[in-house]
Amino acid sequence: MSNLLLTAAQMRALEQAAIDSGRVTGLELMERAGVGAVDAIFAEWPEMAAAPGRAVVLCGPGNNGGDGFVVARVLAGKGWDVEVFLYGDAERLPPDARVNYERWCELGKVLPLGDAPDAIERFPDLTIDAVFGSGLSRPLEASLFRTLSCFSQQFVVSLDAPSGCDLDSGRVLGEDGQAFHPALVIAFGHRKVGHACGDLERASKVVVVDLQLSREIAGRAGFFAEREIVHAVQVRALSPIFSKRNDGHKYDHGHALILTGGMGRTGAARLAARAALRIGAGLVTCAAPGAAMMECAAQLTAVMLRRYDNAEALAAMLEDDRINALCLGPGMGVSARVSALLDVALASGRQVVLDADALTVLAGRDDPFSLLHSKCVLTPHGGEFARLFPDIAARLKAPAMSGPAYSKVDATRDAAARAGCTVLFKGPDTVIADPNGKAAVNSAAYDRAAPWLATAGSGDVLAGIITGLLSRGVPPYHAASSAAWLHLEAAFAFGPGLIAEDLPEALPAVLRRLASDQAAFEAVTTSRPST
Ligand SMILES: NC(=O)C1=CN([C@@H]2O[C@H](COP(=O)(O)OP(=O)(O)OC[C@H]3O[C@@H](n4cnc5c(N)ncnc54)[C@H](OP(=O)(O)O)[C@@H]3O)[C@@H](O)[C@H]2O)[C@@H](O)CC1
Ligand SMILES: Nc1ncnc2c1ncn2[C@@H]1O[C@H](COP(=O)(O)OP(=O)(O)O)[C@@H](O)[C@H]1O
Ligand SMILES: [K+]
Question: Closest ligand 2 atom, CA of 426?
Answer without folding.
Answer: 27
